[in-house]
Amino acid sequence: MIVLDIEALQNPDYRGRGIGRYVSNLLHSLTQLSSLSGKISAVYNPRLDAPGAEAGVPSELKSFPATRSNLRAVNAQTLVTLSPFEKSMNATQRLFREYSPGGRIITLVYDLIPLVYEADYLRTSRDRLRYSFGLEAIRNSDVLMAISEYTKDDISRILGITTPIHSIGTGVADHFFQPVDQKLSDATFARLSSRYPRLRRGDFIFSVSGMHKSKNIAALIESYAGCTPAFRSRFPLFLVGVKDENGRQDLKRRANLISAKSSGQHCDLQFFDHLSDEDLKVLYEGCRLFAYPSLYEGYGLPLAEALISGATCVTSGVTSLAEILPVKPLHFNPHDIADIRTKLVRGCESNDYRDLLLEWRAKSGARFDWATVAKKFIDVLDSELVQHRRVELGPDRSSLNFSPSTKARAKLAVVGPMPPAETGIAGYNRKLFPILAKTADVSMFIAEGGMPLIGTEKAYPISALLAARNNFDEVIYVLGNSHHHINTLEVLNRRPGIVWLHDIRLLYLAYSYGAKLESGDSWKYLKRCLREYYGTPDAFSLAGLQNLEKVNQSGILFARPLLQNATGFVVHSENAREMLVKDLGDYLGGRTIEVVPLAIDDLSARIERPVSHAVKVGLIGYMAPVRAPEKAISAVACFSELTARPAEVRIVGRSDESYLQYLAKYAANLGVRLTSTGFLDDTAYLSEIKSLDVALQLRERSNGESSATVAECIALGVPVVTNIQSVREQWSEVVLCANSLSQSAEIAILLTEACSEDFRSTLSARTSELHARMSYSAIARQLVHAFLRLSPSLRDSPPGELFL
After folding, report:
1. Non-local CB neighbours of 593 within 8 Å, separated by 6+ positions
2. Which pTM value belongs to this model?
């Protein structure tokens, strides 16, 4: 007898949602198969109310409580776990193993979203413990099923499990396959439009979504709000799934802010309340365009429903969504606001996408029916059982331990942030990792808030590293001085490895990390660090001040407490090396520091143009006192006076609004015009950089950082004036360098030189020479060599064991 565990249908709050609906539809499809007649039954959790027809259990399916006597009575030989993360799943599996030690357990997995978004779903030790029970249920299985190829790959890549895994897909409810009767459709539109007056058949954009960040609804709304008022008037955006009123108001405020900035007008979003499946079908059929911007899906049922209903669809095309709709022209980059906007406009204003879908449907005969899913399910039941390698839970039951890699080639893991995390290090990782992955056998583990690159296979959530901790010969942690690196630091504290530092001064990382450790009391952690690791009179004095700026000025960098688990270091410059050595002192021990400079972007986007009469000087990045904006503005005022040319200061990127107002007033007092861009997507950011006549990047003090912004300007052909010491060390032939003590008048003279034809005429040739040495490919190889020299496990390995 094949026994199906149906506990997913016992919780009334969840059985009407994704997994519950899946289980119910699958059960109904299986009971229609004559080949299974008398061969299947169901078990449920005896501590919960028995599920019946109201819960979605077919009347033809016999069900009973999961007890040892009941399993014996039906002679259970196969247990199918239809939802491994239910409360009693481990108990049911243990009962089955006791009764039928030679029987097999098959488990169906929907997604690993809690591992991808660990900070949202696994916030407490209780959450993590409960989830580990689900992972154990998966581990105990002899065969696994997944609802998509992407989930199948996730199980293998993230959990490292070698159990046979079969993708069986999912289905769409039968009524979505049938066109809605015209009278019913008209009546539905009349009923809905009486409540939502802007709803007009054929003239609205529709999306089914939610507020969780994986749904990416904010990106869709930002894209839509940036469309022209005429477009938004003709094609209103209707959303269903955002149930929380506070969430709706937040989205409306965001849309209005963006719309006011781009067009000066209000943006009216429309939110449906609860819709029945019949209403959904009518709206799918009647919309001009269905947009699905999700970042992560185990399957993506709304997209499948919309396609079957005949809607013209555009989607992010990531994770499983590319399986549902494998038509690349209908995919957009979910992180690129401009790309989403382009797809919305083209999907509504032309028939191109509709025609592409009609052609694809005609060729593929694409269907998402439950009969096909049931057949694949039966094929798995009939397939030959391949016994899988056993994997043991760690002692705290919060992570999995896997046997070490047996491959001859050494394997590296790199841990750090990725966009949309708002840090330059995330942007640098995005550019470097695909090239690094082609250079050596490298996997990327992405900190919370970042998403894998489209088309990059070896990119996983950071939580997966602890599950696969012994699968890698070396782990490299990418760290900088902000809260974006807390997740990376936490994993470093549990698994030692090489630390690749983009900043040496780590005060703000320590401050953010302390807030998390001490329930918001950052100073409790900082004081402990100052006393225990920097036990000088000065350190004790600072501990009593609770003044971050005073600590910053002290020269204490907080490398000692934060980098205890580092086995070696990579930094960008000799200046950074000196700062790190000084701060670590005796704590450096026998650890080695390698220097690998930042890479220079590809030069294909470089521009060469004459300087404008009214010179535009860019200050790039988040403005704060450490970036010396007052000195920069004063230097521009001196430049205007020296050259008798008007000049504008352009702040590129998001900054605190009150600080911008202060800087604008400061500039006005000096006769300098100051403007700012606010937050920019990638396309707008590059366009803004290209429009600059010169970039001015200053620091009041060094964090030991290089500047990815300077590297971008160099690649784009924009002259740079800077006092950043590591930039002077790496790129002195293509930038104009002041020293840290230079005053505004001295910087103004460098601005004058940057605008001269003599300097600009030689910049192109010098940049080409520099790029030959410092391209991303060249730096990727330098990094791998550095990792080889730093790693105790790789130090004696020949390079051939690392490089692809």
Report:
1. 568, 569, 570, 571, 577, 580, 581
2. 0.56
